[in-house]
Structures are given as C-alpha cells and as structure tokens.
Write a structure and sequence with these properties.
Layout lengths: L2 E6 H13 L14 H13 L6 E5 L7 H5 L12 H4 L1 H12 L2 E3 L6 H14 L3 E5 L13 E5 L8 E3 L1 H8 L6 H8 L14 H11 L2 H6 L6 H21 L21 H10 L3 H10 L14 E2 L10 E7 L9 E7 L4 E5 H5 L2 H8 L5 E3 L2 H9 L8 E4 H8 L7 H7 L8 H5 L10 H28 L3 H21 L1 E2 L2 H26 L8 H11 L16 H5 L6 H25 L6 E2 L2 E3 L9 E3 L11 H7 L8 E7 L2 H9 L3 H8 L4 H9 L9 H15 L4 H8 L3 H14 L1 H17 L1 E3 L5 E3 L8 H37 L5 E6 L2 E6 L4 H13 L10 E6 L7
Parallel strand pairs: 1-2, 1-4, 2-3, 4-5, 7-10, 8-11, 11-12
Antiparallel strand pairs: 5-6, 8-9, 9-10, 13-14, 15-16, 17-21, 17-22, 18-19, 20-21
Helix pairs in contact: 1-2, 2-5, 5-12, 8-9, 8-11, 12-13, 16-21, 17-20, 21-34, 22-25, 27-34, 29-30, 30-31, 31-32, 32-33, 33-34, 34-35
C-alpha cells in the first residue's frame, strides 16, 4: 500500500519555535534573522521522511479570515498575536520546502486542517495509507482504518499514533464523533464555546447515549437538573460549535496526487538554503548523505601520490593530515601540496626519508599557505619535520572575518561559496566506524584542501583589507600562531610524584567526607547521584526544597548554598563536590595527560572565542581553580624544566582599557598617578576623602568597577554586594556622575552596535552581536551587555597577544634559552634558566608594558619561583 504524509505546517512551525524560544534560545543567522522554528521544522521533517513515503504535503493556514469567522465572529479571537520572530519564519519555511521539493498548500478562506481533510479523504478513497502529523484534537475526526494521526509528546522524539482502536480505547466513542465532543465541551485553543460547564467526561457520557449533538437536541427534554437546563439553553451553540470544529473535506482545492509525489531534494538548492541561514549542522548532514560528484572547479589537477617530492619552486599550499583531534598525540598520515601547476600527496613514511620534501618544508624562500598552521607546525615537529615560512592561514583569516564560523574546513570554505572540499567525517568515518582510508582517498582529500587554501587565499586577504582587518591578521594573529605552536611543543613540566601524593591525600579526604555525610544522614547512599541526594535531603531529612520535577529534586549549588545554615551535612556535601571534581579533573586527569617527556602539552584554541581570547583544551590549563587552598595545591605540581618559573600578569588591564577607550580623564589620571583605583573610585562615589575610604566602601567600589566593564545591572550588583536594588542603582548613578565619559562610551557602543550589528576593539577586531536588535527583551539586554564589554575584553586579548609577540622578539634579540610556556588570560609564564632570571624579568616587564600605546600606563606584576604555586 502506498503511503502519504500530511503535515500541519502551522502546528509544526509554532511548536518548533516555542520549543526553544521559551528558554530564550533564539537561533539567528549572521544577519540577525531568527531561524529556530525553521531549524526545528527541518530536523523534524528529516526524521519523518525516514518512513520513505510516496506522497508528502504540508498545509498552512491562509492569511485573513475563514468561513468559520463568518459563522462566529469571535472564532480564534483569543489567540495571542504571533511574535514577529516567528512571523518572519513562515515565508522562510516555505522557501525551505521549495528547496526540499515538497509541496505546500494554502487556500484563502480555509484553514490548513481543511486542506489536510480534503486530501486525506481523497487519498484514502484511492487506497493510500495516510499519516497526519499534528497535535490538534479536531484532526482526530479524520481518523479511520487508512488515516492515522501522529501526535508528538513534549520531550520525546516518538509519536503517539491515533487509530480507530486507540481512539475508542481512550474515549469510548468513534473518531467521527470527535466533532460532537468538541461541540459539547468546546475548544479553548480556537475559542469554540461549546456548552458552559460541560467537560470531557460529561460530553462523552452524553455522546454515548445520544450519539450526536443534533440527536441530543431532539431529546434534550429528557435531561434533568441544572445541567439539563443549561444544555437546553445552549444546545444551538453546541450545534454551531460542532460545525466550527468540523473539518471541511471538500474544499475547492486545485490538487492532484501526482503533484505531491515525494522525490529526493535537489542538493544544491537545499544546501544554498542552509548556507543562507547558517544552518551548518543540517548542511553537514546532507553533505554526508550526498552521493553526487562535488562541484568541479577550474584548473583541476589530479593529485599524484609520490614517494619523493619533485622540485617545487612556486609558493604552494601545504596541508597536514592528522588522524586524531589532539595533534600532539595523533598519527600524522601525510601531506598535501598544491600550486597552480602541481598537486602531490606524500605519506608520512615517505616524507620522513625524502630529502626533497624535507628541504621544501624548510625552504624559507618558498611561501606556504595552510589551514590551522599551528596544528600543521606542531604535529610535524612531533615527527621531526620543521615547516618554515607559513605566510597564510585560511583558518585565522576566516576567524577574523567571521568569528562565529564553525571550525571545520568545509564550513569555512562555504563562507567563500567554495564547495569542493569534503568533511573529514566523510573521509574517515565517525565513532566506531572511524578508520584510515586508502592513500588514494587521503591524497584526494588533502590535495583538495590544499587547492581550496591556494584558491581562496587572495579572496580572504582582499576581504580582510576591505574590512580594515588585515593588520590584525598579519601583525597579531599570524605571529601569535607560531609562538603558540612553539609553546605547545615545549610544554609545561609536571611533578608526577607530587600528583600521586595528592591522589593519596585527596582520596583519603573523599573517603572521610563520605563517612561523615553518611553518618549525618543516618544511611549510605550515592552522594554523586542528584536523585539519591535529593531524596535524602528533602524526603529523609525533610529540608525545605524547591518544587520537585519529573527528574527529582534540584540539588544545584544555588539550592545547597541556601541550606548551608540549616543542616551541617550541606557544607560537607559542597566540600565533597568540590574535592571530587578536583580529584577527577585535575589530580587524576593531569596525570593522564603527562607525556613521556614529563610535560603536559595543552592545545590553545586561537580561532574559537568571539572576543579573541585564547582558550586551552586537553587539558584546560587556564581553568585550574585558584580560589580555594585545594585548588591552589594543583599548581604546586607545575615546576620548571630548567631552574625557575617566571610569571608576569597585567594589573587591572580591562579597567585601564576602559579608561582609555572612554577617554575618561579623571580615571586616566588616577591610573597614571598609580592610585589604588578601587579606593579612588570609592572616594568618588561615596563622597569621602581618599584616606577615609574603609574596606566595605572599597569592596563595593571594586564590584562596581568590574561590574561596569561587564554591563552589570543594578540587580546584579545588589546581589554581589548584598544591598538593596535601589542602593545599588544609586551607586551606579553616582559612578556615572563621576565618570560621565564612561556612561557616554557605553551608550555610544550600544547605538553603534544597533546600527552596524557589531562592535570593534582598538585593533578593529569585530564581534557581531545580532541579539541587540532582537524583539525579545532578555536577548536584547544580553546584546547590550555584550556591546559594552566585548570591545574592552577583546582589546585586552589583543594586547596580550601583542605582548607575547613583543616578548618573543626580545628573547630572540637577546639569544635567551628560556621559554614562554603558558598563557593564562592576563598572565604569561616562562621556564627560565637561573642565569637568565634577571634578564627575563626585565624583558618580560618591558615587553608587556610596551605592548600597546594607551593614554593609561600598562602595569605588570611579576615574580619567579620553583613552582607555579609559589609564584603568587
């Protein structure tokens, strides 16, 4: 039997939109257009089409009133106005369906339900099995042996299937009598009145006895009591309500079955749609499913697999193929080389013994172009291959142009509308199916990547220059990439014996805490299980709780902190959580990350954050806790390979940047006079002499200083300093009265962002903030905070990168053997020989303080010691 799928387009789009919008998760594309409803619609459609139907139709409500509005003026009048963020997605979802080659219909004067009813009626008469996808109750009247309704429960990907049997089991009446049921009890969703006081149970009872509303009217005199009187008074409204709820199965629709035959989508049309609206995951999905040959581009050269590299005298793109994500540990499989005349692939085995290839890599007269050159340089170094003169990085260029791009080369290429590159997943597979393909497949993949880099280089450079961002790319990001490669390869020495001592010590602490907690509650249970913990705290001990959900009681940090003074076990539980996290993530986790050289080699993500800050992964060395004694203990494990560690970090750099960018003379003067900036601010906003500022005033001023940088609200400040909202509001008002330039600067940032869609750092790094022009208030407020903070935080990140470049240059000029090994936000750490300590400290301070020219002096503080812990 052939199968037809009928989809209620309005219900699907509404439900997909609210599934994420209710939580404030409103997806937008690069132009700020909301896309969350269409994205969910597309995902849901892809899942449903796995049924391989013969026919597919999506029905929508037409704009304007329908024949039902003529029957009852207030029909559907109680519905809230559709949000603009959803309204704009209706034409978009129809554009999507066109790209998918799926028929969608609407008819003036009728609802989508009537279209579905008409098509379902026609199809079932022709022996076609019909599946209707909607949650609308009135659609159940269409259900028969060949027409079934598929209802999607919340928080589930499975559908409840309504058949005549399942309908009867639930209601005890026939599917066609759903019209009578709605006539009697009404439908609040559509503002169908029904009869006052008649609910589902009463309505079903009456239908079982009288079968139809019309028959009930004929026998209404038999009904007794108040309900009988009400029915007699309102039975005509019930008949009208039934008519309103009845789906018209004979609408004048120009439709034939052939027009709705399901056929495979046109890849290029659908891919173009996904690109237009930045739906990268869906684009990747259809790309992985695609079997057609990728688009051909001009100047095709078939890759040649070589054992020895022929002479190359031209600037070329050079790609490296690592098998695993962590390139410090991964196999290096081979290299792709491409220029306009040559295209080669050489395996790592052949590369290592080929003097021609090794000479090409080290040749400083030949420029190399790459993608994520830090990965290429470092992975090659682990295999004793040195690559010199990488002068272009497509990843970094694209990151500057569009910071939100997914870091997958295929996705980056699509930014330039270039599609002749496969996803790595297409080549290697995924999960348990991941494997190393043949040399022929690898050669094709790596050379195509090299070709893309070669062809897109000038386009990227031209875009950078047009956006006035080429200097940011060339003078900051490219040099930093090479420095980070060397830092990662050098690594940070770790005292494994000390970590093993901590393992023993903290293991004992955890056992003691477990014993204490079990003793305090009077039973043993799994403390790490939120469900078991919730039962113990809020059932066994009877502690006050927040509302219980389907998954149990909340045992979040916020909930537990509110209970600290109520029961002694809470403090123990918080300590247990803190120490077990330290134990698993750092004490055990770091040991697993130590290489044979006794060092940890982290990976710095240079093209990830939207602000330009570096992040660290595998392991994250920027996130080692420092606020607790236990957290600080971890830093004792980091020791020098040479003789000492030297650390320097910027003092209040973001506040200094704020003073400079806002051109605030009083704050600039205070910094340059080396004032205690928090005490100075306290004296200004609390109207007291500097020597009269007490600790509380200074603490409040510090919270305001840093809060202003992050766009903190009066409510947020009140929580932080434990004051009333009005008092916090007054503090902020006083702050802006004393520093009016800062308020003006923040407002200007917001206004410019609304106009341009982005903000910029001092060095013209852009952060695009579509949230600022959204209708949703919470999202718009987030956009404002980002507009205020991003230029400051991003400038701080840029200055730190400039500092790394300056210090690296000074080390080379002075022929120092000491190494830069870590960057932790505003801090740089060096592994230093004893005879170079004094010189290193001099040069690092010089380099960091002279990294950028501001109206405010940049200040750094430094020290040297035998471990990271002792540096502070």
């Amino acid at each position: 039997m052939k199968k037809m799928i009928l989809i209620d387009g309005n219900f699907w789009l509404f439900s997909c939109y609210y599934a994420t919008a209710a939580m404030g998760n409103l997806m937008v594309n690069k132009d700020g257009v909301p896309t969350n409803g269409v994205y969910g619609f597309a995902q849901r459609l892809g899942s449903v089409l796995k049924e391989n139907p013969d026919y597919v139709v999506v029905a929508f409500d037409a704009k304007g009133k329908t024949f039902r509005s003529d029957m009852l003026e207030q029909y559907k009048e109680n519905r809230k106005e559709t949000p603009q963020e959803l309204t704009c997605q209706f034409p978009m979802v129809k554009e999507f369906l066109d790209a998918y080659q799926i028929q969608h219909l609407e008819l003036t004067g009728y609802e989508g339900d009537d279209i579905i009813g008409t098509i379902a009626n026609k199809a079932s008469k022709e022996g076609i099995e019909v599946h209707i996808y909607t949650n609308d109750k009135d659609m159940m009247q269409l259900v028969n042996e060949s027409v079934h309704q598929y209802k999607k429960p919340q928080k589930s990907d499975n559908y409840n299937i309504i058949t005549p049997t399942s309908f009867y089991e639930e209601y005890g009446i026939s599917c066609d009598q759903m019209r009578d049921l709605l006539g009697l009890m009404g439908d609040t969703a559509d503002n169908i009145p029904g009869i006052t006081g008649v609910g589902p149970k009463t309505a079903i009872k009456l239908i079982k006895e009288y079968e139809t509303v019309e028959n009930l009217k004929e026998h209404s005199d038999e009904l007794k009591g108040k309900i009988g009187q009400t029915i007699r008074e309102q039975i005509d409204m019930a008949i009208l309500s039934k008519e309103l709820a009845t789906i018209d199965i004979n609408v004048p629709l120009e439709y034939d079955l052939e027009s709705s035959i399901y056929q495979p989508y046109d890849y290029e049309k659908l891919a173009a749609f996904y690109r237009r609206y930045d739906m990268q995951s869906l684009l990747k999905r259809i790309s992985l499913q695609k079997t057609q040959t990728p688009i051909k581009t001009s100047n095709d050269i078939k890759p040649i697999i070589v054992q020895s590299l022929p002479p190359i005298n031209k600037d070329s793109a050079l790609t490296t193929c690592t098998y695993e994500e962590n390139y410090h540990k991964s196999l290096l499989l081979g290299f792709g080389i491409y220029n306009e005349d040559q295209a080669y692939y050489i395996s790592i085995e052949n590369a290592l013994k080929d003097a021609s290839f090794l000479a090409f890599c080290k040749n400083k007269d030949i420029k190399k172009y790459g993608y994520d050159i830090k990965r290429s340089i470092t992975s090659s170094l682990w295999h004793t291959i040195e690559i010199e003169n990488y002068t272009f990085d497509l990843q970094l260029a694209s990151y500057i142009l569009s910071p939100g791009l997914k870091d997958e080369m295929r996705s980056v290429c699509e930014y330039y509308q270039y599609y002749d590159v496969a996803y790595d997943e297409e080549v290697f597979g995924k999960g348990a199916k991941k494997c190393i393909p043949s040399d022929e497949i690898l050669a094709n993949h790596m050379v195509k990547k090299a070709k893309a880099i070669y062809l897109l280089r000038q386009l990227a450079v031209d875009k950078l220059k047009a956006e006035q961002q080429y200097d940011l790319y060339q003078e900051i990001e490219m040099p930093v990439s090479r420095i980070l490669a060397q830092m990662e390869y050098t690594g940070a020495k770790v005292d494994l014996d000390f970590l093993k001592q901590l393992e023993q010590s903290y293991g004992n602490k955890i056992k003691e805490l477990e014993k204490d907690i079990h003793s305090l509650v009077g039973k043993e249970f799994n403390i790490a299980s939120p469900k078991q913990l919730g039962e113990v705290l809020f059932v066994d001990l009877g502690l006050p709780s927040s509302k219980k959900t389907k998954t149990g009681f909340s045992t979040s940090v916020e909930v537990l902190n509110n209970l600290v003074d109520i029961h002694p076990v809470i403090k123990k539980i918080l300590d247990y959580r803190s120490i077990t996290k330290l134990y698993s993530t750092y004490i055990i986790g770091l040991q697993e990350q130590v290489f044979a050289d006794g060092k940890i080699h982290t990976m710095y993500n240079q093209a990830l954050t939207l602000t330009g800050r570096l992040s660290s992964t595998d392991p994250n060395l920027q996130n080692i806790p420092v606020k607790t004694p236990e957290g600080k203990d971890i830093r004792k494990a980091f020791i020098p390979s040479n003789d000492y560690l030297v650390s320097y970090d910027y003092s209040q750099i973001e506040l200094r940047i704020l003073a400079h960018m806002a051109e605030c003379p009083s704050l600039i003067q205070a910094f340059n006079d080396d004032q205690d900036i928090h005490a100075y601010t306290a004296s200004q906003i609390f109207h007291v002499a500097l020597d009269k500022v007490d600790d509380t005033m200074r603490r409040h001023a510090k919270a305001i200083n840093f809060g202003i940088v992050y766009g903190m609200s009066d409510f947020g400040l009140s929580k932080q300093i434990d004051s009333s909202v009005n008092e916090a509001k007054r503090f902020i008002e006083n702050y802006f009265t004393k520093y009016p330039e800062i308020e003006s600067y923040m407002k200007t940032n917001i206004q410019k962002c609304k106009e341009l869609g982005y903000v910029e750092t001092m060095f013209l790094r852009r952060r695009y903030i579509p949230e600022i022009n959204e209708k949703n208030f919470m999202r718009q407020e987030l956009g404002k905070r980002l507009a205020m903070n991003s230029p400051i935080q991003g400038t701080g990140a840029d200055i730190m990168k400039l500092a790394m470049i300056k210090v690296d240059q000074l080390f080379k000029e002075n022929n120092l053997q000491s190494k830069m090994i870590l960057q932790v936000h505003d801090e740089l750490i060096f592994d230093v020989k004893s005879e170079e300590v004094e010189k290193v400290m001099e040069l690092v301070q010089l380099g960091m303080e002279q990294a950028a020219s501001l109206n405010v002096d940049l200040k750094v503080e430094g020290n040297y010691a035998k471990s990271w812990y002792d540096l502070k």
